[in-house]
Design a protein that fits this description.
Two copies of one chain form a homodimer.
Chain A: H1 11-20, E1 26-32, E2 37-42, H2 53-57, H3 65-78, E3 89-90, H4 105-115, H5 127-138, H6 155-168, E4 179-183, H7 184-196, E5 205-211, H8 215-223, E6 227-232, H9 243-253, E7 258-263, E8 267-269, H10 286-292, H11 295-298, E9 303-308, E10 321-327, H12 331-342, H13 349-359, H14 369-394, E11 400-401, E12 410-411, E13 414-415, H15 419-427, H16 432-444, E14 446-447, E15 449-450, E16 463-466, H17 471-491
Parallel strand pairs in A: 3-14, 5-6, 5-7, 8-9
Antiparallel strand pairs in A: 1-2, 4-10, 9-10, 11-13, 12-16, 15-16
Chain lengths: 493, 493
C-alpha cells in the first residue's frame, strides 16, 4: 500500500502506539471539582513564544481588528442588539460584487458552460460564449476544468494574455513564456518577493514601497523577514511620486540593507488599469514606458507586472484569477520561478478561465459584444460618478481634505484630529486614526480602514474608504461620515 | 488620487525620471555586428547567485524534469516527430479528470447554477441542486461567488464541514471555528508548517515525515529552511509504520534539531479518505483515534487534519478546494493563523462551494441521490479494480515487486536495477531510478516518477505510478512497463 500521499488508512492501531510513545508528554494531571474528573494538562508544542516569529510580525489592516469588530456587530444586529444604526456598511475592501456590482453576463455564461458542459447543448447561450467555453475545455486535461493545469497556467490562456498585452501596449512584444497565471495578483507579488529575498543584517534584501502602501507588501516583507524601505508619495501633489524622495529613501536604505526592488516597478501592479476616471489621465504600463525609453532600459530593466480578475469592471475577487508578466529575468532564475510555482500545482482553473475571458472579451460583430460593452461601460461610468461624488462631499467637511479620486476604487482623505483625541488614543495604546475609525464603526456602523494600516507621514492621519457602495448608500455613508467627524471634533475640542 | 493599491495611472513621465535616476545602472555597451546596433548590458538584480537560497533547495518530483520532458515529447509528436510510440501516457500525478474520470453531475450542476444564477429559472436542473446553489449564493457577499469570502472560509460551508466530520468520526464533536477552508490541501499544509518553524542551528524546528513522502513536505520544509527528519515506512509490511523506527528517528533528530511535528500527525492528510479498497481496511481519522485513546490525548495533542476536493471519487483538482481542522491549538496561535490566512484574502470561492457539496452531498430521498450514488460507486469500484490490476500485473515482472494498493491512487513498486545501469546513471550524475524512468519515457512514452523523488531506503529503487488511466489504457501501460523492464534488465546485464 502506498503512503506517499499520506492518507492514514488503517492508521488506528499504529496511532495508539505512537500516542503512547513518541507523542505523549503529559505534564500534569489536575482534578476538576465541578465534573469530578481528572483534567490532563500538557505543554503545547505550538505557542505564541515557540511559533514562527516572522509570522507574528505580519499585519494586514484591510482585514484587521476593525473588520473583525464589524463582523461581530453584524452578528449582534442579527441577534437583535439595539444599535444607533440598522446595518454595517463595509467600505474597507475593494469587494465590488459584495457592494452590489453585477457580474458581466458573458463571463458567467462561459463559466457555467465550462462547469457543466451539458449546457453546450442548450439554446439559451450565445454562440460566442459556447465557442469560448469549448476552446477553454479543449485546453484542459480530459476537457475538464477539474483537471490540474500546467503550473505556469493553461497554455492557450497565456497566449491570449500575451496578445492582450501586446495590443494594450501598442505593439510592444510579449512572450507567452513570460506569462505566469496566478491565484489573484497577491499570489504573484508574494512569489516575486520570495525570489528576491536573501542576505543577513546590512546585506539583507530591502524592497522599496510607496507610502501609503497596500498592506500586502508590508505583510509579505515581514513574513519573509525582508527590509521594508519606505518612500513617501506627495499628498499635496495628488499622491504623485517625487524622484528626490525616491533617491533619499534609496540612499538611506543603503546604509542598513541591500535595496533590490522598487514597488511599483520590479513589481508593478496593474489591477486597476481600466479604473481611470480623471480627465486627461490614462493608464501606461511600465513595460511600454521602458520600451519608449529605449533598449538600454527595455532590454535590461527587470520588471514583473501583475493583473487580476478582481478589480476593474470585473470585480470577480472570489475566483482568485490573475497573471504576472516578467521581462529581462535571468533564465536560471526563471527556471527557479517555474519550479517554485509547480509546488502549488496550479492556480484555480475557473480563475484561469475567467482571466482568459478578460483578456479575450467579446469582439465587435460577435453576438455578445454589444451587451458586454453596455455592461462594462455602465460599471465604469458608475464608478467614475462615485469617485467624483466621494471627493466632492468629503471636501465639504471642515477638517477633512480629499484628493481627487483619479483612479482605482478608493479615497484616502486626510483628517485633522483634536489633540485631546490623540492623547486619549495613545493612552489606550491605539493609533489615533484607529481610535477614530473604531468610534465611527460603533456609532454609525460604517467600516473604514485607518490610514495607519497603509502608512502615512508622521503626525498626519487618514482613513481609507472605498467608493463601491451603491450611489444612494454611498450618499448616506458620506453624510454619516460628515456628521460623525463634526461630532467627534466637537466632543474632543 | 489614491496610490494605496499601486496602479500606475499617469506613471509615464515619472517613470522616465525614475528610469534615468534610481533605476539606471548600465554596466556596458557592446556592438552587435549582425544588427549594427548598440547592445546595452546591465548586471541583473536577480541571478541564481543573488536569489533566495532556500527557494533553490526546493524540489518537486511530481512536476520535475521527467514531466517537463514528457510535455516536450507531446509537442514533438504534435509536430510529427517520429517516435516508437504515438502518445505520452502520464501516470505521474493524481489527476483523475485528465485521465478520463467523469465529474460528479450534481457537483457540476450546482457550480453552473452558482456561476450563472439565471439558470435557477431553468427547468433542466433538479430542485436539490437549485437549493444547494441558493444556499451557497445567499452566504456570499452580494449573492455572488465573485465576492471575497471571509478569510477562514464561508461560514455555512465551515458549519457543513464540521457536521460532516462529526458524522464521519461517529459523533466526536467538531467546532466550525476550528475549520479553515484552504486552496487545496497543499495550502493548508504549507500554512501549518509555516506556523511551526523557528530557531537556529540545533534549536531549528524539525518536522518528521514518512519516507516515502509526498514531495510537498520536503519542498515546503526546504523553502522554510526547516529540518526534514525522515522515518522509514516498512515496505516488507506493506508500507506500515514501525514505532521503533519512529523512536530511532526522533532520538537521532534531537541531536541536531528541535523536532516539533510528526507528519502525518500534527499534520494529518486525509485526502484519500474514500479511496480505501483493500478487504477489511477502513479509514480512521487521527482525531477519532485520539478520542478513543481518552482525554489525556484528545484534550492535549495538537492535531491539524486536511482534506480536499482533488482526490477520492471527486478528482476535482482544478478547483483547488480544501479544508483544514485544527484541534487543541493554543488560542493565541489560532489568532495568528487567522491573521496569516487573511493576507491571501480568501480561498477560491468556487472551490469552497465544491468543498461544501462534498461534505453535504445529496441525501436519501433527494432527487439527485440515486444518480449521485451511482456515479460515486462506479468511480470508486473502477479505482479498486485498477488498484488490483496494477499490483497483479506488476508482480508478474521479474525484478519488480509491488505491494497491494490498499488505498489512494498510486503504486510504488520496488525495481531491481543491474549494476551496469546504476554505474551508467551515476556517471551521468543521475539517480539510477531517474535514469530508468527517463529511458522508459523516451522509449515507451510512459511518464512515471522515480522513487528518489519521494525518498526510499538507501540502495533500493522504485517508481511511482498512478492507477488512474482508463482500464484498457492501463493494461497497455502495464504491458509496456513489463516489456521495457525486461529489455532494460537484459541490456544492462
Amino acid at each position: 500500500r502506498v503512503f506517499t500521499e499520506r492518507e492514514n488508512v488503517r492508521g488506528c492501531p499504529r496511532t495508539y502506539r505512537i500516542g503512547s510513545s513518541a507523542l505523549s508528554g503529559i505534564s500534569g494531571v489536575a482534578h476538576d471539582k465541578m465534573t469530578d474528573k481528572a483534567v490532563f494538562t500538557r505543554d503545547k508544542v505550538l505557542t505564541i513564544h515557540t511559533m514562527n516569529p516572522t509570522v507574528k510580525k505580519v499585519e494586514y489592516a484591510v482585514r484587521g481588528p476593525i473588520v473583525q469588530r464589524a463582523v461581530q456587530i453584524e452578528k449582534e444586529l442579527k441577534e437583535g442588539v439595539k444599535k444607533p444604526f440598522t446595518e454595517v456598511i463595509k467600505a474597507n475592501i475593494g469587494d465590488a460584487h459584495a457592494m452590489g456590482q453585477q457580474p458581466i453576463t458573458f463571463f458567467r455564461q462561459v463559466l457555467a458552460l465550462c462547469s457543466y458542459p451539458e449546457l453546450l447543448k442548450d439554446n439559451m447561450f450565445p454562440e460566442d460564449a459556447k465557442n469560448r467555453a469549448r476552446r477553454i475545455l479543449q485546453a484542459c486535461g480530459g476537457s475538464s476544468i477539474g483537471a490540474y493545469s500546467a503550473s505556469q497556467g493553461i497554455e492557450c490562456v497565456r497566449q491570449d494574455v500575451a496578445r492582450y498585452i501586446e495590443c494594450r501596449d501598442g505593439g510592444v512584444p510579449c512572450d507567452p513564456d513570460n506569462i505566469y497565471l496566478t491565484t489573484g495578483a497577491s499570489d504573484g507579488i508574494v512569489t516575486m518577493l520570495k525570489l528576491l529575498v536573501c542576505g543577513e543584517g546590512p546585506t539583507r534584501t530591502g524592497v522599496m514601497i510607496s507610502i501609503p502602501q497596500y498592506p500586502l507588501y508590508s505583510a509579505a516583507l515581514a513574513e519573509l523577514a525582508a527590509v521594508q524601505v519606505n518612500y513617501y508619495l506627495n499628498e499635496d501633489k495628488c499622491w504623485s511620486m517625487d524622484v528626490s524622495e525616491l533617491e533619499r529613501s534609496l540612499s538611506e536604505a543603503r546604509k542598513y540593507c541591500n535595496p533590490k526592488a522598487l514597488c511599483p516597478n520590479l513589481c508593478s501592479c496593474q489591477v486597476y488599469q481600466d479604473n481611470v476616471y480623471a480627465e486627461g489621465c490614462q493608464f501606461h504600463s511600465f513595460k511600454k514606458v521602458l520600451f519608449e525609453m529605449g533598449p538600454q532600459y527595455s532590454n535590461t530593466v527587470e520588471l514583473a507586472s501583475f493583473h487580476s480578475t478582481s478589480k476593474c469592471y470585473m470585480g470577480e475577487c472570489g475566483f482568485r484569477g490573475g497573471y504576472m508578466e516578467v521581462i529581462n529575468m535571468d533564465p536560471e532564475v526563471k527556471a527557479q520561478l517555474t519550479k517554485l510555482v509547480s509546488v502549488r500545482l496550479c492556480p484555480p482553473v475557473p480563475g484561469q478561465a475567467l482571466m482568459d475571458l478578460v483578456v479575450n472579451s467579446p469582439k465587435p460583430g460577435e453576438p455578445s459584444y454589444n451587451n458586454f460593452m453596455k455592461e462594462r461601460t455602465a460599471t465604469l461610468s458608475l464608478l467614475a460618478e462615485k469617485a467624483k461624488l466621494t471627493k466632492e462631499i468629503l471636501n465639504t467637511v471642515p477638517g477633512i481634505t480629499c484628493n481627487p479620486v483619479q483612479g482605482a476604487m478608493y479615497s484616502f482623505p486626510k483628517i485633522s484630529l483634536p489633540e485631546k483625541a490623540i492623547k486619549e488614543a495613545k493612552a489606550l495604546g491605539q493609533a489615533p486614526d484607529m481610535f477614530y475609525c473604531m468610534k465611527m464603526l460603533e456609532e454609525t456602523g460604517i467600516c473604514l480602514v485607518p490610514g495607519s494600516g497603509f502608512g502615512q507621514k508622521e503626525g498626519t492621519y487618514h482613513f481609507r474608504m472605498t467608493i463601491l457602495p451603491p450611489t444612494d448608500k454611498l450618499k448616506i455613508l458620506l453624510a454619516k461620515v460628515k456628521e460623525f467627524h463634526q461630532k467627534f471634533t466637537k466632543q474632543y475640542s
